[in-house]
Amino acid sequence: MIIKPMLPTPKTEAELLNRAQQLAGMTLGELAYIAGMIPPPDLKRDKGWVGQLLEWHLGATAGSKPVPDFIELGIELKTIPISYQGKPLETTFVCVAPLIGVQGLQWQTSHIRQKLARVLWVPVEGERDIPVEDRHVGSALLWSPNQQEQQQLQQDWEELMDMIVLGQVESITARHGEVLQLRPKAANSKALTEAYGANGQPIKTLPRGFYLKKQFTAQLLQRHFI
DNA sequence: GCGTGATCATGA
DNA sequence: TCATGATCACGC
């Protein structure tokens, strides 16, 4: 697939937000045309397509490195699929969860806290009955967790990491955590990575990722439009 | 396999 | 109907 070079990366937060807000109201088909991309008929085999399209338009630089999308600005870009009611249709993947070498890890210095410190949220229509090319981009917002959100995130993170340290990763389900979940994040159920077993011995288990629950992202979106 | 971008699809 | 657990694509 031939695509045009991405737009230059914004130099300031204001410039990034401004550019994101210019995209509001446009369709993914229009944005794809500008980028020289072809919209897929659906997202079954192109789950990251919308995110990569927006990365192109906003000049995100990180690629697949475990750092914020806009390194200089310390800002993470997240597209979020929304329903006709403006509520999230999916949970939001944040980052991979460490399963070994986790003793002594602190929330304050964790990767997930760094990733969520400043996020540019770009809502995009996500109902499956809307053709991908006809879906509209919504109004972008820059977000940092408020005190309550920080507290909720830290509490969930500590609970989940405690279980990982204790070798209970395989008893963690998506129901643990109020706002943050731990779920598989893998190519398939045969992809395995190392973790601690119940007796401290090494085991092989599915890689996991941290995800924000829908209710949490719904509230932060709503908070912005109040 | 890992980390990025995420959404799919089935069981409850 | 809906969230959980599973899955898809890509660069390296």
**SS element count, helices:** 6
* Sheet with the most strands: spatial strand order: 1-3-4
**What's the total number of strands?**
8
Uncertain spans: none
What sequence of helices (H) and strands (E) makes up the elements?
Answer: HHHEEHEEHEEEEH
Share of residues in strands: 15-25%
What do these coordinates show?
It is a single chain. The protein has 226 residues and is an alpha+beta fold. The protein has helices at 13-22, 28-35, 49-58, 111-116, 147-165, 214-224, and strands spanning 76-82, 92-96, 119-125, 141-143, 180-184, 193-196, 202-205, 208-212. The strands form 3 sheets. It has a 3-stranded mixed sheet with strand order 1-3-4, with helices on both faces. α2 crosses α3 (49-58). The mean pLDDT is 96. The structure holds a DNA duplex (12 and 12 nucleotides).
Summarize the structure in short.
With 226 residues, this protein is of the alpha+beta class. The protein is built from six helices and eight strands; from the N terminus they run αααββαββαββββα.
Keywords:
DNA-binding, alpha+beta, single chain, 28% helix, three-stranded antiparallel β-sheet, 226 residues, globular, 8 strands
Describe the protein's topology.
Elements: H1 13-22, H2 28-35, H3 49-58, E1 76-82, E2 92-96, H4 111-116, E3 119-125, E4 141-143, H5 147-165, E5 180-184, E6 193-196, E7 202-205, E8 208-212, H6 214-224
Parallel strand pairs: 1-3
Antiparallel strand pairs: 2-8, 3-4, 5-8, 6-7
The protein binds a DNA duplex (12 and 12 nucleotides) through helix 3, strand 2 and strand 5.
